[in-house]
């Protein structure tokens, strides 16, 4: 299948409350959306825009009830579905010159070899909302993040229209979202007003997707989300990654990405020790820094081998459990620290590097983390990152719920290229084919 811009599309669910807020079309919002999407397309992005029904759907639903007194759930759904399709045709008209001619209304029929940077989607069939349709698109077209544009800034712990003490939730996991919509018992109700519909939530959880719910009127904030910068909104993730996640069980292989039986075996331990020896050897041969910092050093095995090769090496790690498991001789050179706030001075190391760390970060922390690795380096920055092109991972690893930000190589190139004080070196480090790994060597200007 062909993907425009060589990158997975950005899935945006455009709430009907933004297009038709009170029964009348919001031309100002549509004009701003038009300007924003076209600007991002020029930057090489491509989009799936899935439209909701909005107030117009409720007006038609209420009219049916008023006339005949009782309308079946299926008919109520079909009314809403046709309202989403009307809104979709409006967006299709606005983006006519850059949008695929077909509006996606049947999600079983996948697009093939499309070249347009914008695709419009609408409601499908009774039983779920356009939230579910957006999840289907993410699954079918490799999307990892769905941006749900609504008329609210956050998801709240209870209805803010009814309760003055309602508190915004900045970060949550799918289990929390399920509890939030628990009164609906996981069922779809026509016209349901919920942050994310329960059926869509179940599917998104199953496929480990991330959903960001934010106010669609704030286009500066939307740009920050797409660029991987800090943003306002609620992020719903497969799991909550913090210092508490990375405990003894993780570093002994009982949870996380590596297959347990292999990691805990004698040969598994030898294999991972050889990997760190190999990495240290390559750093010594190709870069040979006087000193370096391993960000996300785990139990410090790579730091130990780098010091073996005569490099003044240090490491930081967010998990206390990992540091406790470190070798006694290596512990003095390790400290607890967060990649978004590295506890070292500017320009302190010849080389700052990460191995399989960046893909574990929440999207809102990625740019800050990259900036921190650049800040404390005076010469080189090296990142090995698991990307969508590294297909070998499915052969040797199990499902890793901590992989929150698995993007394409192009995404990371664009991110690192946004820093004016660094350049991306393309042929200064030995690397395996993209099928196996994605490596970036950056140099400070």
UniProtKB/TrEMBL annotation:
GO biological process: UDP biosynthetic process
Domain of life: Bacteria
Species name: Candidatus Roizmanbacteria bacterium CG10_big_fil_rev_8_21_14_0_10_36_26
Family under the similarity heading: Belongs to the UMP kinase family.
Protein's name in the database: UMP kinase
Protein keywords: ATP-binding, Cytoplasm, Kinase, Nucleotide-binding, Pyrimidine biosynthesis, Transferase
Methyltransferase type domain location: 293-378
NCBIfam families: pyrH_arch
Every Aspartate/glutamate/uridylate kinase domain range: 10-215
Record GO terms (molecular function): ATP binding; S-adenosylmethionine-dependent methyltransferase activity; UMP kinase activity
Entry-linked InterPro entries: AceGlu_kinase-like_sf, Asp/Glu/Uridylate_kinase, Methyltransf_11, SAM-dependent_MTases_sf, Uridylate_kinase_arch/spir
Top-rank EC class of the record's enzyme: transferase
């Amino acid at each position: 299948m062909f993907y425009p811009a060589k990158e997975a599309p950005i899935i945006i669910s455009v709430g009907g409350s933004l297009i038709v807020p009170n029964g009348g079309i919001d031309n100002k919002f549509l004009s701003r959306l038009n300007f924003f999407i076209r600007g991002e397309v020029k930057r090489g992005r491509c989009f799936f825009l899935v439209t909701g029904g909005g107030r117009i759907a409720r007006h038609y639903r209420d009219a049916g009830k008023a006339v005949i007194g009782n309308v079946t759930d299926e008919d109520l759904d079909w009314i809403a579905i046709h309202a989403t399709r009307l809104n979709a045709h409006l967006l299709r008209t606005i983006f006519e010159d850059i949008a695929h001619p077909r509006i996606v209304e049947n999600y079983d029929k996948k697009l093939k070899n499309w070249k347009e940077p914008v695709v419009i989607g609408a409601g499908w069939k009774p039983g779920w909302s356009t939230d579910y349709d957006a999840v289907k698109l993410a699954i079918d077209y490799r999307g990892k993040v769905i941006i749900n544009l609504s008329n609210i800034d956050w998801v709240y712990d209870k209805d803010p229209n009814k309760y003055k003490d309602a508190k915004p939730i900045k970060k949550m996991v799918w289990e929390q979202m399920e509890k939030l919509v628990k009164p609906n018992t996981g069922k779809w109700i026509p016209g349901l007003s919920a942050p994310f519909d329960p059926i869509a939530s179940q599917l998104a959880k199953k496929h480990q997707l991330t959903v960001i719910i934010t106010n669609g009127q704030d286009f500066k904030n939307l740009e920050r989300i797409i660029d991987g910068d800090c943003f306002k909104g609620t992020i719903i993730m497969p799991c909550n990654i913090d210092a508490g996640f990375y405990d003894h069980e993780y570093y002994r292989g009982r949870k996380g990405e590596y297959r347990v039986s292999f990691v805990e075996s004698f040969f598994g331990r030898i294999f991972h020790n050889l990997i760190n020896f190999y990495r240290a050897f390559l750093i010594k041969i190709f870069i040979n820094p006087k000193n370096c910092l391993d960000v996300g050093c785990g139990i410090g095995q790579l730091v130990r081998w780098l010091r073996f090769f005569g490099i003044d090496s240090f490491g930081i790690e967010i998990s206390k459990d990992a540091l406790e498991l470190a070798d006694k001789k290596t512990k003095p050179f390790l400290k607890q620290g967060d990649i978004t706030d590295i506890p070292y001075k500017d320009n302190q190391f010849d080389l700052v590097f990460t191995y399989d760390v960046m893909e574990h970060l929440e999207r809102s922390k990625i740019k800050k983390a990259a900036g921190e690795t650049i800040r404390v380096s005076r010469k080189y920055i090296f990142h090995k990152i698991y990307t969508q092109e590294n297909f070998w991972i499915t052969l040797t690893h199990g499902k890793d719920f901590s992989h929150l930000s698995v993007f394409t190589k192009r995404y990371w190139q664009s991110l690192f290229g946004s820093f004016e004080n660094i350049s991306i070196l393309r042929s200064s480090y030995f690397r395996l084919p993209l099928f196996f790994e994605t490596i970036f060597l950056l140099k400070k200007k």
